[in-house]
Design a protein that fits this description.
Strands 2-4-3-1-5-6-7 form a seven-stranded mixed sheet, with helices on both faces. The chain is of the alpha+beta class. The radius of gyration is 22 Å and the shape is elongated. Helix 1 runs antiparallel to helix 2, helix 2 packs antiparallel against helix 3 and helix 6 runs antiparallel to helix 10. Helices cover 54% and strands 14% of the residues. The protein has ten helices and seven strands.
Length: 257
């Protein structure tokens, strides 16, 4: 019998880390019950095939596993894309990021110049109770959502943002998408979250913001048309009643632009 060595410990730790990371992503996307179901199926498959050596049942489960993996890839392509993008993110490779310390400082200054027009626009719309939904792209591309609206490709400008969400504007009902230093498109359609624990007082804008934050790594700012309150959705979590300082701080921490 082979001895249990350091390589086996590393193997177990890597598998545990991968499962935990997948668990977090599935929980944020609202599909945690499916994760539990898949995990239970894998455990049954391992027990029957490897431990109990049930040949007939094991062979049947083997067939289901080969087909099931393909189905899971199709069903959860957004989550898998997000997992791979975040795995390769520079934020996870600190020793490389430190080599570009000065460059990061310059990027931080540029990010603030981009963030402030968004914050100013949100505060002005909050005062006038103008409903708004602003999505800010991170690592995962939002091209498929940009194409559902009207392409703008304009520099980020607070007055432009306010005009887009003006109540008589034809684009005010959809979402505005920002990528880099550009307002890419407006009037966009987003996936809606169907989580049952969302308060009934929150409307379609909040559900759409949560939906895009679950499907991608983007962050979404919501200005309520009823109360003027400002909220931020990111990674499937919603922060409400934000003031200008809190909004600016959260956007800066997320490094979303």
């Amino acid at each position: 019998m082979d001895s249990f060595g350091i390589k086996d410990i590393i193997d177990i730790l890597l598998v545990a880390s991968m499962l935990y990371y997948l668990y977090k992503i599935m929980k944020e996307s609202g599909s945690i019950n499916i994760f539990y179901g898949v995990l239970a199926f894998i455990m049954v498959w391992v027990i029957t095939s490897e431990l109990l050596e049930m040949r007939l049942l094991g062979s049947i489960l083997d067939k289901f596993m080969s087909i099931g993996l393909l189905i899971l890839v199709i069903l959860f392509q957004d989550q898998l894309k997000r997992f791979l993008v975040e795995l390769g993110s520079q934020k996870r490779w600190h020793f490389l990021a430190n080599l570009f310390h000065h460059k990061k400082n310059e990027q931080a200054d540029n990010s603030r110049d981009r963030i402030m027009p968004i914050v100013y626009a949100c505060m002005n719309m909050s005062k006038s109770k103008t409903g708004a939904l602003i999505v800010i792209q991170q690592k995962i591309s939002l091209d498929i959502y940009e194409k559902t609206g009207d392409i703008i490709d304009a520099q980020i400008n607070s007055r432009l943002i306010e005009n887009i969400f003006f109540k008589n504007s034809p684009l005010h009902d959809g979402a505005l998408i920002i990528a880099g230093d550009l307002i890419k498109s407006a009037g966009c359609i987003l996936p809606v979250s169907h989580d049952t624990d969302i308060p009934r007082s929150l409307g379609l804008r909040h559900r759409s913001a949560l939906g895009i934050s679950q499907a991608t790594d983007a962050a979404a700012i919501i200005v309520s048309e009823e109360t003027g309150g400002i909220s931020l959705a990111h990674r499937g979590k919603l922060s409400t009643k934000l003031n200008s300082t809190e909004l600016e701080h959260r956007l800066s921490l997320l490094q979303i632009i």
